[in-house]
Amino acid sequence: MKHLYTLFAFVFIGHIGYSQANIALTNPEAESVLMGNYNPLDYQASTVFDDPHEIAAELTDRINADSLYQYLKKMSEFETRNTGSDTVSDTRGIGAARRWAHQKFQQFSAQNEGRLITSYLQFNRVICGLDLHRNIVAVLPGRDTIDPGNSKPGIVIIEGHLDSRCDTPCDTNCLAEGMEDNGSGSALVLELARVMSKYTYDRTIVFMLTIGEEQGLYGADAMADYVKANNIPVAAVLNNDVIGGIICGETSSAPSCPGLNDIDSTQVRIFSSGTFSSRNKQLARYVKLQYEEELKQHVKVPQQITLMTAEDRQGRGGDHIPFRAQGYAAIRFTSANEHGDASNGANYEDRQHTSEDILGVDTDNDGQIDSFFVDFNYLARNAAINANAATMIAQNVCSDIGLVVEQINWKQVRVNIGGDWCPGPPYRIAIRTETNDFDTLIYTEEQETIIEVTPGFMHFISTCRVNEDGIESLFSGEQFIDIVGVEDEPTQDRGIQLLQNRPNPFDEATAIAFLVHEMPAVNVATIRITDVQGRVVDQLKHPIQMGMNEMVYTHGYGKVGTYYYSLLIGDQVADTKKMVFVAN
Q1: Which of 291, 270, 281, 272 is nearest to 384 (CA)?
Q2: CA dihedral in degrees (245, 247, 252, 255; nearest 10)?
Q3: 568: which residues sit within 8 A by CB, 6+ positions away?
Q4: 397-443 per-position pLDDT tens digit
Q5: Cα separation, 157 vs 235, whole angstroms
Q6: What pTM was estimated for this model as a whole?
Q7: How many C-beta neighbours within 10 Å does residue 573 have?
Q8: Domain covering 23-393 assigned CATH 3.40.630.10 in the classification
Q9: Looking at domain 402-482, does it have CATH number 3.30.70.360?
């Protein structure tokens, strides 16, 4: 059994850190906008539509399932979009595909008063025998550029990878239509460029199709390097990968679907790195909150948004990771069900990373596809979730705030909110305990607020500012407080405290944490995991630091039972707690 774990901090993983060379936007106008060096009036719509609530109200009607079908049908006609495939042909390969996508962005711009600036992000790196590669981007300029005395408003990036593959990463001869992986995400990005370029936002929004994802996240890595090197602030990155299928395969990378041919058309998963005070998890929570409060009332078929504990499926990765590695808030949207784990072994019969990842099949032999593997209505619903989240983030509500939390008595804490740039209340205070989701949200006009809490729980508290339109900023980092009961000893006298894992019970991954009030003589702790017979299942090492120490433990999908985890400081067991594995 293979176990992966991720430290709660913004850690780097193996394939990040490759340096791209000669990274540049081919359109200087796009670069000027990203740098904040432009006049917003040059891109102002003749009729300004900027009310975020009204935008949310019409998104589901404007995002068109048939448009998504048409994009996918066209992408399938290129036969392969492998990063190393033909760049000269007008009908086959990655060159034809990226030129078509660039033309679609230009078409959408022409339909919206030229407000989308199209460009390639070009970079050099040897991938599958080619050394020059291009992401395709469309930039929608925001009306806020540079605020004197403050930083430039961060851009919002909506991305999906355009490239496709079969079993072998650089097989450019196989049929690799890649409809679920990742024609679906590419179609979503294209449709949002079409729909959202009608509206006016404070922040600049970038719609991006990357290449080289299947060989090592290279296209996203190039863009992450580019914005970092040019000091372009990034507010959020919304990555969409395998986002349109609803049918479960026989295999699927944990955590995923129950089994062969299970159907789930009403759930989408959001993966993100970190646990306590992770800006990525805070972004995921924000997306879910905005769906529940802004978009859900307007949809015909509600979607369940599931916030996953892990950064990605077990042993897998996506284009949000290079941005997270550079310190930007980044998340991944993925469908609830995937058709395969891309293992491609001798008995592998699923579609992902094969020539069978196609749009659908003709079951009655009339020459027309009548049974589809991508659900266009499901994809449209996921597109609306993205668009709604980007709409709210792009309001550029000041988020430069923090908070101090202290316990007053056994059932109350005091929250003091402050910040250097934000102009003041109102605020929302978010509280969570046992899960990745916010448990409670409190609206307040005061910078100092007393809130009721439940003793015996670790509480994680954060805050955001609310603007005059009732739109929240992104949430601050979290502060934690262990609420002790009347007869409990004070937290600061506990030395090192092992906390209950969260969530518990859990399915495929859980956060294990210990709280350090006083540094021990050793600087590395061990979390030892055992079964009910006392057999060691796994051991995780973690450097010890003052305050919260937290890691994500992934045991794999579908295992059930009771296990124990112990905190070892040196050779001494400091504490042991029980955790429960459950299967969905």
Answers
A1: 291
A2: 80
A3: 525, 526, 527, 528, 574
A4: 988 888 999 989 888 999 999 877 777 889 999 999 888 999 999 99
A5: 8
A6: 0.91
A7: 13
A8: yes
A9: no
